[in-house]
Amino acid sequence: MTFDEIDTFGLHILCIDDSKSQLAVYRDQLEGMFTVTTSETYEEAVACLTAQRPDLIILDMEMPRVSGLEFLDILRYTPNYAHIPVIIVSGDSNPADIKEAFRRGAADYVRKPYDGEELGLRIHRIFNLLTARAEAEKAAGARAGALSSAQDLLTQSLADLASARDNEGTRHLERVGLYAEELCLAAAKTPRFKVEVTKDFIDRIASMAKLHDIGKVNIPDYVLHKAEPLTEKEFDFIKKHTTDGARTIDMIRLSFPDYGFLDFARDIVLYHHERWDGSGYPEGRAAVTIPVAARVVAIADAFDAMMTKRVYREASSFEEACAAIEAGRGGAYDPDLVDVFRFCRARFREIADKNRD
């Protein structure tokens, strides 16, 4: 069978490579037979995955910062994308690396330089032999049926990606959403916040607070899970997750121009590490120039982070975490929200107890 004889109608391939020239090669070889989308960065790749789930991914092994192997792990632990077959295309012929790629779920491994027709036949073989695509479509359909709207489906897909990169498999993101919702429910009863913190605001933050660390998809494993203190360069990697995450949201927004709720998510993603006193990042915003949603998530995220065991420290107690939040009043955190937090302590303890790792 020749490449021209392959029935490829409607099949979508996402090609991920930091080389513009290699992406041009893929387009030249595959367009016309497949729907081809290309991504130079993982931010673009996440946006593409969210906008239109591909049937197959072609992935470069040696991407900047996060390797192809690490991205395989991200896909493997994200339910919506775990069954998408991935072909690794790489100039690396080290047998150990090839074996590791297969261990992490790669469907095939193609060494550069390669023959274009051979790549097409390998793609055809995967589409014919693997049942993963049908299983993924069935799972996605069941999940879509359980969700009430396109907003829920898109938010859940992004949350799954964030969870794949989160804190060694803890329930951190889930708890942050619950804490943020509880803080807003209390804040809505106060004169200070009752105008802005509406029912719609509370509903949105309950689901979208879980997306705050979506930019961590672009941070290398060795930085995320390092037990020793981070170097300055490594901390710069960490700080970039806010702008990387916002850029991902921006790219998704291009595909869904009517989804205004993504602007709400973007505020959380970009600004949840800003501080009330202006000493945070990425923009050094201060006080009320920081969106309320980001100020809420800053408290919820910090509180749960302190109570979550990390590779580099033990978890703080409930009382220690509460004391730290209160000590940050007017420094790290909105003083009015910290005052609200004091009235939420009992509910925060209940959430912590019911949602342990």
How would you describe this protein?
The chain has 357 residues and is of the alpha/beta class. The protein has two domains: 3-139, Response regulator (Rossmann fold); 147-354, Orthogonal Bundle (Hypothetical protein af1432), CATH 1.10.3210. Helices cover 54% and strands 7% of the residues. The protein has a five-stranded parallel sheet, with helices on both faces. Helix 8 packs antiparallel against helix 9, helix 8 packs across helix 13 and helix 12 packs across helix 13 (292-306).
Keywords:
single chain; alpha/beta; Rossmann fold; Hypothetical protein af1432; 2 domains; five-stranded parallel sheet; elongated
Question: What is the fold's blueprint, element by element?
Answer:
Elements: E1 12-16, H1 20-30, E2 35-39, H2 42-51, E3 56-60, H3 68-76, E4 86-90, H4 95-103, E5 108-111, H5 116-129, H6 132-146, H7 150-164, H8 172-187, H9 199-208, H10 221-224, H11 232-255, H12 261-271, H13 292-306, H14 318-327, H15 335-342, H16 345-354
Parallel strand pairs: 1-2, 1-3, 3-4, 4-5
Helix pairs in contact: 2-11, 8-9, 8-13, 8-16, 11-12, 12-13, 13-14
